[in-house]
Every structure is written in C-alpha cells, then in structure tokens.
Description:
With 514 residues, the protein is an alpha+beta fold. Helix content is 40%, strand content 24%.
Amino acid sequence: MAQQDENILKKVVSHAKEYGFVFPSSEIYDGLGAVYDYGQNGVELKNNIKEYWWRFMTQLHSNIVGIDAAIFMHPTTWKASGHVDAFNDPMIDNRDSKKRYRADVLVEDAIARIEDKIEKEVEKAAKRFGESFNREMFLTTNPRVLEYQSKISETNVRLQHAMNANDMAAMKQLVLDLEITDPVSGTRNWTDVRQFNLMFSTDMGSIAEDANKIYLRPETAQGIFVNFLNVQKTGRMKIPFGIAQIGKAFRNEIVARQFIFRMREFEQMEMQFFVKPGEELKWYEYWKEKRMRWHHALGFGPENYRFHDHLNLAHYANAACDIQFNFPMGFKELEGIHSRTDFDLKSHEKYSGKKIQYFDPEDNQSYIPYVIETSIGLDRMFLATLSNAYREEKLEDGSERVVLSIPPALAPQKVAILPLVKKDGLPEKAEKIMDDLKYDFRCFYEDKDAIGKRYRRMDAIGTPFCVTVDHQTLTDDTVTLRYRDTMKQDRLKIAELRSSLKEACSLTSLLKRL
C-alpha cells in the first residue's frame, strides 16, 4: 500500500458502498455529516473484528473480564474525568476556504513533512554512498539533517507548551511561524485559535423544568472506572487484572473527515488494566508488545505499523504511545496505549466521596491502583482491514478483477456454495452441502450468472473460498475448492470440506498464532 494515496481511499469508499459494507447514514435525506451505517457485509466484518479482540482479551487472559456499561452516566462522572472542563480541541479557520482545522494536527502534519525531508536526504545519501553508507552517522553529522531535527525539536517543545498552558495565541503563532498553508485555498489567512468542547449533551427527565443535563459518553473508559469495585469484588479479582469493554462513544467533531476514520458516532474497544503503583511502566511495555503482536497476526505486514510516542502527554499520563497504521492517507493513529497513573480512580473517589481502593492481601495494605489502557477504534480497525485488503489485479488473460484479501477469519462470508449450472440436480446437491456447513461457517449460496461472474462477486466481498458443485460431484461426491487470493482450485471430497475450512477460517486458528 502506498504511504499516501487518497485515490485508493476514494476507491475503497466507493467499493464499500457498492458491495454492502458501509453506507452514508440517512442517505435518502442526503445523509448526515460524519455518520455512517454498516451494511450486510460490513456488519459481519465488524462483528468478526470485535470477536477477535474480545476473545484475545477475555479468553486468552484469565485475569481480564468484560462489562457492558450504559451510554448515559451521571453527569458528575464527566466532571471527575475532566471532560467538562478540558475536553476541547483547538480549532482554527482559514478565511479564504472557510474550512476549519485542528491547529495541533496542522502542526503535527508540518512536523511529519519535515521528517519526510530527512528521509529523502537519507535516501539520496544511501544511493550516493552505496554499501558504505552509515545511516546513524549521517543522521548525526549531516548539517541539513541536523537543521531539520533542530526545527522538529523546537516545534515539539512549543506545541507541548501551548497545549499544556492552553495558550491559543501561542498555538496560532506556531501555525504562522511554520508557514502552514490551507490545503484547499493555499493561503495563510488564518483566524485566531479557539477551543471547542466535543461532548454532545441532552436532557434527561419527562418535564423540561425537572430535566438534568447529561452527556453522551465521549469514551467508554469511565464506565469501567466507576465499576471498578463492583467487578473487583464480585469477580474476586486480584491485582493485576483488567476490565474490557466494546461500545459506542460520541464526539461532536468539528473536523470530521476521511470516511470512517473520524466520525461523530463511533465504537471503541478498550481494556483498562489495573496494576500495583510502581509497576505500571513494566506493564505498559508488556501491553505494547502484546497489542502489536495482535495486529501482526492478521498478516497486514509489519512495515504498515509503527509506534509513535506522545511528546505531549495528557496531564494524567506518565507514558503514552500510538500504534499507527499506514492508511491510504498515510500513517495515522489506530490504537492508543497509555499509562494513566491513578488519576481516574482517585478523581472518582474525590467526586463521589466513596473509597475506591484495593486491599492487597500480600502487602497487607490498601492503595489506589494505577491503570494501563489499551484503546482501539473499531471503525478505524475496520478501515485498516478494508484498505489493506483492497486489490486491483490484472490477470494473465488480460482481464481485471477487484478483490478484497481480507484475512479469512475476519471475512464476512467464509465460503460460497455455487452449483455450476441451475439444473440437473446440481442446485439440490449444493443446497445440501450448504445446509451441512452453515452451522459452522457463514455460507453464501448463488446460482445466477456464469460461474466466472459469481467468482468475481465473491472476490469483491472478500469471500476466501468458493465451492463449485458440478456433474462430477453427483458421481463421486467431490467438489472444486477455489482459493480467493491465488485463484487456484483443488478437487476434494465433500467430507473433507469442514476440516479444511475450519483450519483456514476459524478465529481459533488465528488466536493460536499469538
């Protein structure tokens, strides 16, 4: 996948709609900005990604359990968490294009462009010096590279100061000093930077006068924190242990773009891991390695992932990084791993007046646990899967096909059962095979059009296997098994189908790689 190819993103968006993966929400009413519906194939892929994450967390780790907390929470929750006072994005407008941007993202993009310049210098030098090229020495001695690195360091320090001090004037000055231009108008005609709170609010209560202002949760983590004691006591959990959750969250994103990458209604898969104070950084490294291994097992290629350490730490964190994925629009955050210290439980203890501590029988003392968080956007994981899987291939006969090389364990449909022709008893035989397999695999039956067209349709939705029932099947109970990625075909007995498909398609096989 190219590091940045907006054209690929457009093709993925078009393909997702055409083949029932993702639709614009309320499309018959011209849609709703940054809100999407998952279609018949999309919901299956989404559910399979959820199951892969859920089983990894709660089935492979005996000390992690799951919950499903309500979306509505007591409004004081969000005061305690800091969202009421500090859940803001610094926004800046370009007066010529009338477009609005996150100022910190504009600065981070500018830093990324400087980093790209360094890489280009390295590539040029590597070509010039050949095998004798020493990358580390070049990075530490080349004057131009050192100048670029100095500018990156200075920019990071200024960005961190502006964010921590909530200094919007300093943020605007940084945009001006970096000579950042609007990608649409090409001008530098910027407004001042202003803060926007991202929480959606509504009223709870049957009578307006009695209504209480509550919020749609902007993250799922707080539902875990307020249930810490409930889960710990009823599950008799011992530190270290984790609580996992998958659920919807809502943010009134001012700048929502890039398809399902940034939406106003989205889904998160989060796990909060509670540890003994002083051991948090050990567990932080542990979960970094574990989560990266989970991603690599899917086979998207290790070159498409990288860790990105946060230079601007949230006030409650003592370590934080992103797992970035190489989306069509470049490397962007896919998952966050954070060492949140004891901020969350301590804050809820303060605001609720309830003691939220863990008694450690080994040390014979009570303490507020520290927390390691892993948080992955389900919709972003869906986009990563779809964009990585999208292929346009030219075949030996000169024809072309579009194929989604989705990992078989995540594919919406595992196998298509296709009678060669719609007569001679072949449909009946095919339906019998489908009735036998459908309890173990999501199967798709189709008998319309030529077999080649049906293969192409299955390729386009990512079905890893096609079983073709032909006249020979009626005499010897064998079928043709076609492989999506190679288009290779094997002849095998119907009785062998289940075991072959199970090995290739099951989540269990995928999880055993971890």
